[in-house]
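Researcher: Hi, I'm a grad student and pretty new to this. My advisor asked me to get structures for two proteins we've been looking at. I'm not sure of the right format, so I'll just paste the first sequence and hope you can take it from there.
Model: That works fine. Here's the first sequence with its structure tokens right after it:
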Amino acid sequence: MSKVSKTQQDSLTAEFVSITGSTTKDAQSYLKKAAWRLEVAMDAYYNNPPPTTAGSSSKVADPQKISALFDKYKEPDEADIGIDGTIKLCKDLAVEPEDVVMLAVAYELKSPRVGEWTKEGWAEGWKKLNCDSIVQMRAAVGELSTKLSNDTDYFRSVYNYTFDFAKTETGQRSISIENACAFWGLLLPAGLKGRALQHMDAKADGEEVVYTTSREPGWKQEYNDLWFEYLNEKGGKGVSKDTWLMFFDFVRTIDDKFEKHDVEAAWPSAIDDFAVWVKSRID
């Protein structure tokens, strides 16, 4: 990479701070180590956050305090935290229950389904995030929100987890279109707002697919509603896990005119059919 000017360094530092919420000092440190490559620096920041980052201080979270908070939110005669406790928790965390960041929290705490938190998942999750107080948890939730929108790998992990999380019955092989659209309605805007769903070019390299940042426009926020409309009109009884998982790559790689969709590739039929159906809606 050619030498980065002082003006460019200041611009990259400001962008890093605005995305991660880090201090200017930490931003400059990570950028310098990454030779001023923003995406590389951000990956390093999320994978190895600085000691001053909320929830990751040198002091280890106290398991007894974490357990006491669990008991605060669960009903006395129940083993797990339920819907009422979830509402109280969200109020204390200063976040709406429908906020997409709660999917990230559910992922971290291994919540088995909507509005349910097990003691084991709670203890392991908050210990991993190094939080044993509501103040620390609030800070961690803020960081998870930023990470969810800007870290592609993390977004994918939460996205993949959401399919099973969205099931309403044990053993379900698909989720209802209503549920799928509701969760897509939370996740897609979050990923498109930041870098998590940044448009990429995908090229086959042997058995692997190599992704590079695209210079062309891709999936737009308004296409979310067209996808929901298509599913409600022609989607059948539900959304399979295959369709859910592969839709992530479809959104990241499709061009804004849907002209480069490869029908010979191994896409689920629902995605192939949508790529044809949507063209008449955007022409």
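Researcher: Oh nice, that was easy. Here's the second one.
Model: And its structure:
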Amino acid sequence: MNIFRILGDLSHLISILILLHKMTQTSSCSGISFKSQALYLIVYITRYLDLFWTFGDSLYNTVFKMLFLASSGYTIYLMTTAYKPTHDPNLDTFRVQYLLGGSAVLAVLFPYKWTLYEMTWAFSIWLESVAILPQLFLLQRTGEAETITTHYLFALGSYRALYIPNWIYRYFVESHWEPISVLAGIVQTLLYSDFFWIYYTKVLKGKKFALPV
């Protein structure tokens, strides 16, 4: 465990808390992609299958895994019940089947081991790297976002960006290397690059988040 891993996990947790706060305070899920949230739930379910046989081995890992599963499931619950009328499916139109299919192909072809768990784990890593695309596509279609939504996206993007120095640290200090996680993490961070720039030049300077025309 190192400081970059801890900060990354905290950033991830903060992003979820910001999202739930935004939804409960406004009684709306407007501006949030249901498809992205559904993909994240799939990510957590397929990645944390090891809870069945590692539960309690690490209190830190167990608590965070259960928090991510529960909060993601609760988000989906809110978006499909109380706040469903505030979601516009006509804007949330990204074709996620390509993301699911591509992640499945990579997981089957290039796992660390050809076991069910290793392939589902690899699938979750690849899928997480692109799960934000429906949300970014929704932003592109609307052209703008509430400030609190941009804070959520910034915290979510920072989580994976912070994992990059974590992997570097583990490589040099622990001689531990995970090429799938590193490559997927770089892809995920690059997908956020334009958003990070607009967030820095607009939101952090007190301006409204709006994509350039």
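Researcher: Is there anything I should tell my advisor about the second?
Model: You could mention this: Strands lie at 144-145, 209-210.
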